[in-house]
Known about the structure:
Elements: E1 5-9, E2 15-19, E3 25-29, E4 57-63, E5 66-73, E6 82-86, E7 94-99, E8 112-118, E9 121-129, E10 143-148, E11 154-159, E12 179-181, E13 191-195, E14 200-205, E15 220-226, E16 250-253, E17 259-264, E18 279-284, E19 301-302, E20 313-317, E21 329-331, E22 334-341, E23 354-361, E24 369-370, E25 375-376, E26 387-392, E27 399-405, E28 408-414, E29 424-427
Parallel strand pairs: 19-20
Antiparallel strand pairs: 1-2, 2-3, 4-5, 5-6, 6-7, 8-9, 9-10, 10-11, 12-13, 13-14, 14-15, 16-17, 17-18, 18-20, 21-22, 22-23, 23-26, 24-25, 27-28, 28-29
Amino acid sequence: TRTTILLTAANDGMLHAFRESDGEELWAFIPPDQLGRLNLVAKLSGPHPFFADSSPVVADVKIGGNWKTIAVFGERRGGRNYHALDITDTTNPQYLWSFTDSKMGETWSEAVIGKMKLNGAEKFVAIVGGGYDTDNNNATGMAVFAIDVANGAKLWEYYNNSSSDDRQYMNYSIPANATIADLDLDGYIDRFYIGDLGGQLWKFGPSDPALPADLATNWKGKRLFDAPPIAQSPPAGEFFPEQAIYGAPIPAFDDQKNLWIYFGTGDRNHPNNTTAPNRFYGIKDNTTMANGSVLTEANLVDVTSNNATATQGWYFMLGDTEKVLASADVFNKVVFFSTFIPTGTTTCTSGGGAAKLYAIQMVTGYAAMDFSTGVALATTDASKTRSKSIGAGIPSKPVIVLTESGATISTSVIAATTSQQLPSNPAPPPSAMRSVLYWRDMF
Length: 443
């Protein structure tokens, strides 16, 4: 058996591994590009510099016919590189590779790892956004990359290369995480989605049936949705985006097997920004990969206060200064997401601002449940309350917790906040739990 470890990156310049059983630190890794900067830790004046400022992603992948456990992490504000370690032996990590690119911004986007067929072979890839750029012209970060997990090679990239297809609109940095979708459940990535700082939602189809999917040059990209632009007045040296998308878009099927994509907008890098109005969107993705047409709010229904049937999707306005700073989650036909409402201008004040938790029906955008009881609403419309206060501080992505006792199933939703609150909220449970009865490997 392997020693169970907890991994965390830190602004001391290292990725740390702690033994789960007692919290003892087993090892730490300093990224090669950060080694020469560690002397900055001793600075006695000015703000503390950023180093390994992101979160690691761990996945089991097959490399050279052998299964390995790989950790991939970026640097967020600390740099423009991704790094990978082989932690199959959790007590003896092995450095694998580092990746960067001239188009890469600060590596905010956490890698999403999945399996594809390329050139007739099975490959595990890490998909990342191009990152964040603080310059108002977004000089870097306007790209999406697929990296070979085995060796760090760039397998594919999508960026504005002055072509006449939808690449011409990739003009905003992409610090968000991507979301992958295996639509036919064959174990391979069929689609992936990602949002940018201009409020554009992008859709990529590595398995486009019209083209050989095992050739990366044939992978297709499409601008699926474009949020309305909003004029900004940013402070000197910073860029306030137009309805920025920082959280990963979340896909889910409805009862009719329609694929929906859910995401909200909000300036994560400036949580106390009070100038940009934001929304939450539910979009039905029944589009092809053909370029040239894009969904806008004109194709959706506004259910902020109006009852309407969502043919292509819906959206509702958030409150003044309210913003979505994390991705949503979908469970039992309910979309859960959190929001933050700033109450001051000091970013680092502990517990500043107010946090909310939303629960909405996935197809209508209406309120989904009574927050006091966790019971699903028998009747609902646009006038019903969609959210509840969960304390102070910036909230995390909601996490669904299920417990089963005999025939009784209990469901709760937890969203932690930066004020160290961890409220648990009851939610409508599913009618039954599914579990694996048996399984078999097919060779």
